[in-house]
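**Fold in tokens:**
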Amino acid sequence: MNPARVLFSTLMHNSEMPMPKKGMKGNIYLSFGIIAVTCIMIPCCIAMGYISYMLSSSMMNAEGLLTPEGNTITGAQMNGLLSELHILSAFSMVFSLLVIFNVLFFSADLQHLIPLPFKPSEILRGKFFHTYMAESIMEFMILLSVFIGYFVAAGENLGMGSWLNPISLISALIGTFVTPLLPLVYCALVSFFLMTVLKGIHNIKVFYNSSLVLLALFLILFFASFGGLGGIDLDNFMNSVAEGKNLFLITCNMIFFTSPILADAIETGSILSLLLYLAGNAAALAVMLFVGSKVYPSCLYTAAALGERRKAASFETLGFKARSPMASYFIKEIRTLIRTRAYASNCVVINLLWPVGILILFSMTKDSSGMNEFIAMYGDPDYPRAKLLMLLAVIAVSFIASAMNSLSSTAFTREGLHADIIKYLPMDYGKQLSAKAAVSLILTWPALLAAVAITGVFVHFGAGDMIYYSVLSLEALLLSAVIGFSMDSSAPYTDWSDEYSALRGNLNSFFNMAIAMVAAGLMCGLTFLCFEYVHMSIFADQMLVLLLLGMIDIPAVIFGRKLILRNMSELS
């Protein structure tokens, strides 16, 4: 058997935490899996399919884009489909760059693989295709939903012939699985370039900051595409895309050069376009593997040298201070999160999504009639539904924020193969748990408070609203964190090869997100029903939510703490 295939198969079997399958714990995790699929994967796919359907329908019905008969396929809907493919490809490239960089050069299993009878090129192929499969499963589902949304819109607007073209359907199916390949090929080539050209810098931060540079470039390109359109809004973006004059679309057509060929194959049913699409991706993959076969061995030596220098520097700069055990453990957790790039970006920096995202939202819509109308309604006691919407938004974000940053659901997973050290530290389990919980709250709640404060500035909250939403967000965050700690202490994923695997292979994070979404949905549903059908006043509804969450938090914290401490004592 091909050595690269053997390595790929081995890596695939060890890429995720083993899920308990027997007994009560197995039944609980099976239930978590069903909840996760139902509450995360399926809703995401439905949402993406609906967005694709709406965008494609808008493009197909745009004035002047169809012939008088209304059945001629033009470039407008192709541009709409392309814009979706390009946005997905750009996100895939940005968020996969550090993953492929870490997997190829800094994963812990390399020290075991290199002495084995594998050629460097075989290690490269095995690791690349394993990363491609591990990172793309959710993207496969989203792409399939995008194509389904497109075909539904085409069937409604252009006739059932758009559904029945077999080459178009085959092209979409192939594109579902091949579209994520080119962004990952680019990530591998960028990592080769950085390791080869910048190896004299001896500073690993240069490599890890490359993803931030890439994200900044795509964001600049995206916002620059609104230049001369009269403002940043959805209508301007769609009009420029329909006319084929959008800078982001034009540039990405060149970067992700196979996507326009795929769109043409889907829209025209051209076998030639389909073959060209496959040939283009095959050529890009062949170039990456050829380049990798030449430079990967030297890149591995560079990575090893960087690791040695980094360890020596950290040892020389070590300082020791007398601290209490609690403070020492807390600082250890903070340093682990901040100094480890995977944790820093996925567990710490991600919290800025809420205040920064809300600031961008209000900045972009502050002059729109819809936003001004909402702000006016929020301050008018005759329109309580505006406050209801704000209440529902705070509940949802507060529950999801803790689950999204994975601070609680990887608290024990982050210990890795040394998780059993928890049992031997001269510090009782309760204090260790308190330190981990403090880290989760300190890194999450201030971001939520900042988001509330920014919203309050734009919507003109009173002091009472600010205090209320701050306390409410803390209650929701506490419940979500307890769930995360309970799950990760029950079945931590400790046998991981690198920190990115600890995050993306940890089913506890995925399940914690699903449960948080269910809890948020139940709480929002109860709040809405009490307002609409029980006819509670908005003030009574707010107090009900606050008291109910507090009543749930108290037993959850008490019994959850006992469960987590028991799980900590059983760690091995």
User: Anything to note?
Assistant: The radius of gyration is 26 Å. Residues 63-74, 308-318 have pLDDT under 50 and may be disordered.
